[in-house]
Amino acid sequence: MINNVKVLLIFLLLLLVSPVWAQAETQEFAMPPMQMGETFLKMGQFEGAEAIYSKLFETGAENPYVVRGLVKSQAGLKKIDAAIKTLEVYLTDHPDSSAVLYGLGLASFMQQNPDKAESYLNQAIEKDARNSPAYNTLAVLYFDKNDFENAIHQLHTAIEKKTGDLLVYRNLWRTYRAMGKSDTFMKEFESAKAEHSRVNIMGYGRAYATFLRQEGFKAYEAGKVDEAHAHMTGMMNVYREIGHLSGEVSALFSLALLEEEIGNKDKAIGLYQTLLKINPDHIQARERIIELNKEIEQGIKKQ
After folding, report:
1. Is 99 exposed, middle or buried (0-12, 13-18, 19+ CB in 10 A)?
2. Which residues contact 57 (CB under 8 A, 6 or more apart)?
3. Which helix (H) or strand (E) holds 22?
4. CA 106, 159, 136 angle in degrees (round to 5)?
5. Cβ count near 218 (within 10 Å)
6. How far apart are CA 170 and CA 177, in angstroms?
7. Are 293 and 269 in contact (CB under 8 A)?
8. Phi/psi of residue 177, each to 5°?
9. Nearest alpha-carbon partner for 32 in 15, 56, 10
10. Distance separating alpha carbons of residues 225 and 219, to the nearest angstrom
11. Phi and psi at residue 58, in whole multiples of 5°?
């Protein structure tokens, strides 16, 4: 029997990185640099993320998402002081830069200086009221103070200014849960569907599916396979409902592995086959089907 926890974790990493490099020698990106940088951050590969965001900052310093990536990657490398210095130098020549003021607020927050962080973040919003990441970080500051109502207000403002930032929706879910109001998040999710707001549907749906995935892993690690199965099934249904194919592939693979753990080889094969209809190039799914068919055949011969 395969080590399911290890395989599940490895798969999620593999899912994040399809072919990373188009040409190894020149290191041309097979996906857009911003997306690649986000992928490296999720994987904890901070050196790769820093290389990307440092390059992007040269021409995109007024983009708060570039600044966010730069600060997070350098923080991951324990170089937060270097990030602050870079931003301060830029701010000297561009005192009205909302993106860089936001970056200094984020860096101050990471240094556990909430008052300084809040001051920078408010300045960033004064310079540009559309700076969605600044509202998001303000919300985290309020969350840490247990000021959940203000946190919710800032997160809704962040969504209003720039929909589609998954981090904002995840923080919204986290805050509603802390308030004991998960149902309010789900009502907002339903409203997004009723309004046919594709961006918000994806934001709310993916945030909720991420929670279900995390709960599924926790249940599995606790030896509660049936509970893990229920969470992974819920995750798959959410991804199907919102039309997020890569998420559905992840859920199908996880469910198939769980079926193997339970001993339901035929069900596992069926899930892998469903997965391959969505992504015919999924190598791991094909390998598992071959392996399971061999095991079934060997079992028949032994009877």
Report:
1. buried
2. 66, 67, 70, 86
3. strand 21-23
4. 15
5. 13
6. 11
7. yes
8. -65, -40
9. 56
10. 7
11. -60, -35
DSSP state of 23: E
Residue 296: per-residue pLDDT: 84
Angle between helices 33-43 and 4-16 (to 10 degrees): 160
Residue with tokens 């509660």: 224
What is the C-alpha to C-alpha distance for residues 260 and 295, in angstroms, rounded to an integer? Answer: 11
189-245: per-residue pLDDT in tens? 999 999 999 999 999 999 999 999 999 989 988 989 899 999 999 999 999 999 999
Q: What is the DSSP string of 109-156?
A: HHTT-HHHHHHHHHHHHHH-TT-HHHHHHHHHHHHHTT-HHHHHHHHH
HEC per residue, 266-294: HHHHHHHHHHHHHCCCCHHHHHHHHHHHH
Adjacent-strand bridge partners of 29: 21
What angle do the packed helices 166-178 and 148-161 form, to 10 degrees?
160
8 Å CB contact between 253 and 284: yes
Q: What is the pLDDT of residue 211?
A: 96
Strand partners, 140: none
Give the N- to C-terminal CA distance of the chain in Å, as an integer: 20
How far is the C-alpha of 268 from the C-alpha of 7, rounded, in Å?
15
CA distance 224 to 138: 37
Rg (CA), the chain: 22
Q: Residue 110's closest CA among 77, 158, 132?
A: 77
Q: What is the pLDDT of residues 102-137, one digit of tens each?
A: 999 999 999 999 999 999 999 999 999 999 999 999
Cα–Cα nearest to 227, from 262, 272, 267, 253? 262
CB 120 within 8 A of CB 91: no
- Answer yes or no: are the C-beta atoms of 136 and 155 closer than 8 Å: yes
Residue closest to 127 by CA, chosen among 106, 96, 104: 96
Amino acid (one-letter) located at 89: V
